[in-house]
Amino acid sequence: LGQAGDRYFILYGTVGFDAHIVHQMEDLKPLKQQLGGLAYIVAGLAGAWQFRGTRAHIIVDGKRLRRRVWAVIVGNSQLYGGLLRIAAQALVDDGWLDVYVVRGSGLLATARHYLYFLTHGAFGDPRIEYFKAKRVEIRPRKAMQAQVDGDPAGETPLTIAVAPKALRVIVPKGAKPRVFQEHREA
Question: At 30, which helix (H) or strand (E)?
Answer without folding.
Answer: helix 29-35
